Amino acid sequence: MSVPTASLDLDALLDGFERVESPAELRERLQSGRPLTVKLGIDPTSSDLHLGFAVVLHQLQRFAEAGHHVVLIIGDFTARIGDPSGRNVTRPTLTTEEIEANMQTYRAQAGKILDLERVTIRYNSEWLGKLDFANLIRLAAMTTVAQMLERNDFSERYRSGSPIALHEFLYPIAQAYDSVAIGADVELGGIDQLFNLLLGRHYQERHGQRPQVCAMTPLLVGLDGVRKMSKSYGNYVGIAEPPDVQFGKLMSLPDAAMPEYARYAAFRPRAECEAFARALREGRLDPMEEKKRLAEEIVARYHGAEAAARAREYFERTVQRRELPDEVPEMPLGGRSRVAEVLIAAGFAQSRREAERLIAGGGVRIDGIAVSDPKARWTAVQPAVVSVGSRRFVRVIPDATSSVRGGERERQPAE
Fold first, then answer.
1. How many domains does the chain have?
2. Are 293 and 351 within one domain?
3. pLDDT digits (tens, 9 = 90+) for 41-83
4. Which residues contact 164 (CB under 8 A, 6 or more apart)?
5. Which of 79, 145, 224, 304 supports an S-S bond with 235, CB 3.0-4.6 Å?
6. With 50 as the cut, is the pLDDT of residue 1 above it?
7. What CA–CA distance (Å, rounded) separates 206 from 269?
8. What are phi and psi of 251, to 5 degrees?
């Protein structure tokens, strides 16, 4: 095993964390000269990792580069329980099939940030799946209901009379036992995981281990500039999304959120980001040009500089200059009478409700003209280009003149 480098001093390491419990303990362990076991757990609750996950993955990579024993735990067992962090309702549990499908993409996506040759990947079903009912009772006995109700989401739901299922109490217990199972020295996580990480310290003490240092990163705000980035909120940028999709999404970011993205998505130095924020406030920078530069920088991290440059050119051509892409797939109207039905047929929406939400949000245009009525009828009698955002286009051919082209992209009329 490699020897930890001395170049990664405590001040440099703490840069990027919002809270550490505690800096003194971390300093002591770093000075011990031995590789630390550094843990991060991620549950496969969706098919995609997004830029919010990248914040903590970036920190994990820094420990790996410093020569520590980095363990990425894929929570295939805890995903069956579901962590309701930040939610005021019970999170639905996932099926085994859904978990396995999500897990297939996690390694490749995490590898866009982590040097997987330096990372040990473990699945917590290795130890949690072996616990029998007697051992589960023993673990549950180490925590009181009062302790569980200290967690913000549990306490808020209890006060409001919202239901809390008993199995939800098992999630922080299971995550805490992960730390016991691998003997973690340090656990990383988002700041919303504070309770779970601190419970890991408690369980390690009860098992005779030295309690881990808990290092929490800030939560990256989503594209709405209000709530944390989350796929369920629809305000996310997926790590594996195509370059033009990532770029187009990032261009919807509010100007005020750019310094935060410069810091926690592009990972620019703190001093540079503070200067960037001041220059924006004082009007010394062009927000549009800076946003394009920032978006290109972020896309390049996941797809390379050439792909990022092409994504920028695509955005400037199709959105700023309102030019159509070189190839626009075609489909017949197929007797559809509403714009929402056309969006579904084109694959731009999965349901009528989703299609109407896209229209109401102002993201749908027909030949460059915005559609505002979710119930709008299709009135074009000539071929017309429907665009959704800056990345999705289809030319709709009225039934009287239908002639579908586009090879594998062609679609048949709905029955």
1. 3
2. no
3. 998 877 789 999 999 999 999 999 989 999 999 988 988 886 6
4. 90, 154, 157, 158
5. 224
6. no
7. 40
8. -75, -10
Distance of alpha carbon 324 from alpha carbon 319, whole angstroms: 9
Q: Are residues 247 and 371 in the same domain?
A: no
Residue after which a domain boundary falls, among 320, 350, 367? 320
Token pair for residue 360? 């109401």
Q: How far is CA 181 from CA 73, 97, 136, 168, 323, in A?
A: 11, 26, 14, 21, 57
Decide: pTM greater than 0.85.
Answer: no
Dihedrals phi, psi of 35, to nearest 5 degrees = -65, 130
Angle between helices 133-140 and 170-182 (to 10 degrees): 100
User: Does residue 373 sit in the same domain as residue 291?
Assistant: no
Domain span at residue 77 reads 10-217
Residues in the chain: 415
Specify the DSSP element, H or E, that contains 186. Answer: strand 186-190
Whether the upstream peptide bond of residue 22 has omega within 30° of 0, thus cis, is: yes
| Distance (Å, whole) CA 399 – CA 100 | 43
